[in-house]
Amino acid sequence: MRMRKLIRDVRRKQAFTLVELMIVVTIVAILALIAIPLYSANTTAAIMSEGIAGAGTIRSAMRTWYSQNGSYTGATMTSLAIGQNDLQGKYFAQTDYSLLAVTASTYTIQAGPPSLTTRTSQYYQINQLGSELGTYYSNQ
Question: Which residues contact 88 (CB under 8 A, 6 or more apart)?
């Protein structure tokens, strides 16, 4: 009888029972388990979009180089007509970009990993055809 009276008193005061509170805590925990990985993935994608934009700037400069010289040979990051601050961003520094495997007719641009943040160690690669070689983890 005493337990029933206690439950009745609690109901009259319009308080939450322990079971109701545990259900709410469980629901919040499940939502957090879903939201945190999604947030992390979206943060990484946003950081890498800066690197992709910078790679596009280099790609445009490489097209200009090719139209002026007839080949990609001799093109380096310092010889391209890119301003000193054109590649400097919030996450990527100008030194985070590099030209790989430059031949007369091919090149690969690599952006990253970003040195101005520790949130990701990914890098992005694209070639002269505009084919994205992917986003990779640099530590694997």
Answer: 94
End-to-end CA distance of the chain: 65
Gap between the Cα atoms of 67 and 4, Å rounded: 88
| Residues 95 and 110: beta-carbon distance below 8 Å | no
Sequence-distant (6+) residues with CB within 8 A of 136 are 122, 123, 125
Q: Sign (positive/negative) of CA torsion 118, 122, 123, 129?
A: negative
- If you search the block for the tokens 């979009």, which residue do you land on? 49
Nearest to residue 45, comparing CAs of 133, 138, 122, 140? 122
Which pLDDT value is given to residue 139?
A: 39
Mean pLDDT by 10 residues, the chain (140 residues): 74 76 95 92 90 94 95 92 88 93 94 91 92 65
Check residue 133 and give its pLDDT. 84
Alpha carbon dihedral 61, 123, 39, 90, in 10-degree steps, equals -50
Length of the chain, please? 140
How many helices and strands in the chain, by DSSP H and E? 2, 4
What is the C-alpha to C-alpha distance for residues 136 and 111, in angstroms, rounded to an integer? 11
